[in-house]
Give the backbone structure.
Amino acid sequence: MSEADPKALRRADFRVLRSLPTRWSDDDTYGHVNNVVHYALFDTAVNGWLIEASGVDIRSLPAVGLVVETSCRYFAELRFPEVVTAGLALDHLGRSSVVYRLALFGAGEGPAAVGRFVHVYVDRATRQTVPVPPEIRAALAVLG
């Protein structure tokens, strides 16, 4: 993956691709998918994939992955009724944190948006930092 030029990213740069439909309500008054929707698509892509790849409902684990950092760079507009392809890659796996590299692709070759998403795992009850659960760690092996 090209760290220097995120616009050069392509679907082939991601080990996991997920199709996400846009909704009528995603378009704003300017006629394109609103910026806040990009973050919702990132969140849906990551957590939907985690549930499928781990084989468990992540909401039932004793550790919760809290989003502590996000970013998004926008390069092209997305519009309803496009089906967006979300690319997921592992940027860093730490003891208690996971950094995802993400991209959203519309009809074009290049990304419409490129993002970063950081989960820190905490105990569901105490909110103290804990290691990434083994089910999540095993699923992340697919991302490299």
